[in-house]
Write a structure and sequence with these properties.
32 strands, eight-stranded mixed β-sheet, 50% strand, 0% helix, Immunoglobulin-like, Methylamine Dehydrogenase, Chain H, mainly beta, 2 domains
Length: 335
Amino acid sequence: MTVAPPRIASVRPLWSIEGGRVTLQGAGFPVDPELPRVFIGGVEARVASSSPRSITAIVPGGLDGGRVPVRIEAAAGETAYLDVGAPVATGLHLVDSPIFDAEGNLYVTFSGSRGQESPVSIFIVRPDGSREPFVTEVPNATSLALDDEGRLHVSSRFDGSVYRIEPDGSAVQIATDLGVACGIAFGPDGALYVGDRSGTVLRVLNGDAEPFARLPASVAAYHLAFGPDGWLYVSVPTLNTRDAVFRISRAGKVEVFYERFGRPQGLAFDTHGHLFVVDALAGGGGLYRLRTTGDPIPEQIVDCSNLIGVAFDPRGGVALASNDTVYKLNVRTGG
């Protein structure tokens, strides 16, 4: 009897970072007496599970990033390709997503433990990959947002304030008494919306804050993003077995958008209007893409449980953030 040679049909997901999981689907994979050897970008990857039709491997560290080949040693001539993000900033402490400005500069935080005085609150990662200290005056820098004029703003969960960052890196307090101020986002009305993780989303205009919507309290941080539909989307990680992403109308009406995440955290919209949500549940998290119209069925884009944030470069590409590292993938996000 002729035995068909091993064949790779697909690799999923198509994006990953070091420590992420990727699964090869196909047929005829060798699993006996030893696990197959898998190489990603020329580096041997640890195989987490295997069967004759499926192999799951862990993306190794030390890759340069970009589009890399995925091969099985026993399947000569069979190659799949995977987009891998390279680290662009390490040694950080993020509790929410980083953010890009219009020129492709990436802003990342060193938030620190509550009350910790960090030498640098916010760094800039330039498009060429260089990193510079930028802001030094904000305690526990938490979440970032840009207003319509491209000015950077940052919340502080320590003092319950939001600061506007000037071009020289100095911080000007523009609102205070905002509770445990976490996620922030500017709305179509020009107002700033601030998530107080104790259970309120506040609307701030001209320094004055008023309650906008009530949500469940969070054990970590609210994460906010306005969609192209004008609704405010908020992820609320709790200690429940399942957590929701909510959306809030311009009138302050709260709806459950999707309620089957494990521990949703950072979220952002791409230029096509798709919502991307990081689910940070240990052992089963990653980055998911959802449409905001019709049935919001999540599509897993990255399989990795240690992510907390996501941001899109207006010039192309996406940044993924863990608690201490930001990775950049030079990929297109349409589809």
